[in-house]
Amino acid sequence: MSDSTAIILKQTKGGWNAAIFIIVVEMTERFAFYGLASNLITFLTNELGQSTATAAKQINTWIGVSCMFPILGGFLADSILGRFKTVLLSSFIYLLGIVMLPLSVTVVARRMREKVFFMALYVMAVGEGGHKPCVMTFAADQFGEANAEEKAAKTSFFNYWYLAIVLSSSIAVLALIFIQERVSWSIGFSIIAGSVGIGITIFLIGIPKYRKQVPVGSPLTRIAQVIVAALKKWRLSSTRHPYGLCHDEEDHKSESTNATKIVYLLARTSQFRFLDKATIIDEIDHATSNKVRDPWRLCPVNQVEEVKLVLRLIPIWISLIMFCATLTQLNTFFLKQGSMMNRTIGDHFTIPPAAFQSIVGVTILILIPLYDRVFVPMLRKITNHHSGITSLQRIGVGLFVATFNMMICGLVEAKRLKVARDHGLIDSPKEVVPMSSLWLLPQYMLVGIGDVFTIVGMQELFYDQMPETMRSIGAAIFISVVGVGSFVSTGMISTVQTISKRHGEQWLVNNLNRAHLDYFYWVIALLNALSLCFYLFIANRFVYKKLQKQDK
Question: Matching CATH topology for 1-213 and 313-551?
């Protein structure tokens, strides 16, 4: 089944009534993930005794692996299992990993604790591999393209999907961190496991309401067929085709008289013209026209356009890597930075450093409804675009905010270092620097603003611009850029440590009062600025998918 293939939509299923069950399971999964990730550096440094730089690299590697496994999960969903079965199976694997967390800090012997803990983390990463690329696409599949009402609902869906994720992650940051640090880590981990178990139960209750799409074989095979067919005909002219072009898809089938069959054909585009040679009917194809078409020699126009869709997204994906590398600072250096500043309220209450991440969530919770209910309707009147602004414009705004934010981070850290020097605290890393942690509010708020634009825009772009049969892989590709960003962040830390040590003074050491985290932030800001320029160059030449609808 491709974009030219019939999408069978049972009119009594799907919509918000079905999507709400899927949103709940995602909320519990995100509650668990952020309840763990947001304070993981504290556990690794305080409980397992790792250094700050080592813990940061461990976290980045784990997040990176968690975000790379979805490529395999998306492939299995689109080609073999289907999105529903993949979500269900991966959720149970994820639950297994989470159940291992409290066991690692209670039942397991102390000498084995670190090994079992990291084993649990990577079992969770395997579960995320199936869950992440499929759960959002499966929820979005509940809104069809058949009518304007459902299409408009799908636009709002991406905003409220992210809103739900942020709500659950904010609750996790505010509640679980206090339990982990003030009560016990084992109870905090047990709450995480219980939430995922509840989410899976609710997901199972919603089964009768779901629209499910049947997997149709490897979508990668369709891509390979186009490339091979184009290479076989590389001598042919792209503009001359006396026998015409191949337009027929062979998988148009009606499955039910009670269903509505909607066929979407991709409009032909002029980009990547070499691939168009795969659609040209030459003498050999014409001589065998009464036989079954050889898919490795002749491909329909629609199939070729599907491959073009994927190719167009690759440069966009590359341009987003630095943005995702920037996000990893939220769970690592932002947290250690805040731990050395004055976080007291009154005489007895001290805010845990990780709790500041809730500011990101609160910012998003405020902005997304405003964006959807105020900003989008206002811009619709100006642009006549159903989303107010395009996905690429939305992403671009977020990239600019991220670049500006890292400049702010550099200035705030420079101010903190100056205060530490002025008070003689350079060699007293355990002493609190007499500078209010409220100075960190702008950088946390700007992370939230950037996410509202870029993350949601990425989700929508990589869902909408992928072929129908590759939307799980599209989500996996979107998630994988977060993983690659985490690996890039790890690489930057190692590179900065090596180069700065070679030139006399290491920038990233355990004692942040002697470190130069501000320099590191400025390096990230510069790389972000370069990525933004590259993004603008690519986005200005991007061709959006155009569909030609046929009802049969």
Answer: yes
The whole model's pTM is what? Answer: 0.72
Identify the CA nearest to 206 among candidates 380, 386, 25, 371.
25
Cα 351 to the chain's mean position, in Å? 29
* Token duo for residue 38: 């947001």
- Tell me the three state secondary structure of residue 158: helix
For residue 34, CA distances in Å to 55, 60, 168, 336 come to 16, 14, 9, 17
* Long-range contacts of 120-124, Cβ-Cβ distance < 8 Å, separation of 24 or more: 121/62, 121/97, 122/62, 122/65, 122/97, 123/93, 123/96, 123/97, 124/33, 124/66, 124/94, 124/97, 124/98
Q: In the prediction, which pLDDT does 395 show?
A: 93
Separation of alpha carbons 276 and 278, rounded Å = 5
**Residue 51 and residue 36 in contact, taking contact as beta carbons nearer than 8 Å:** no
Q: Which residues pair with 7 in a beta bridge?
A: 262
Determine the CATH number of domain 1-213. Answer: 1.20.1250.20
Cα distance between residue 22 and residue 488, in whole Å: 32
Closest CA to 435 of 421, 449, 450: 421
Query: What is the pLDDT at residue 532?
Result: 94
Low-confidence ranges of the chain (pLDDT < 50): 1-11, 251-260
Task: Give the pLDDT score at 155.
Answer: 67
Report residue 466: phi and psi, to 5°.
-95, 155
- Per-residue confidence (pLDDT) for residue 476, from 0 to 100: 80
Residue 377: helix, strand or coil by DSSP? helix
Rounded Cα gap, residues 356 and 334, in angstroms: 9
Q: At the fourth CATH level, which superfamily is domain 313-551?
A: MFS general substrate transporter like domains (1.20.1250.20)
Q: How far apart are CA 474 and CA 465, in angstroms?
A: 8
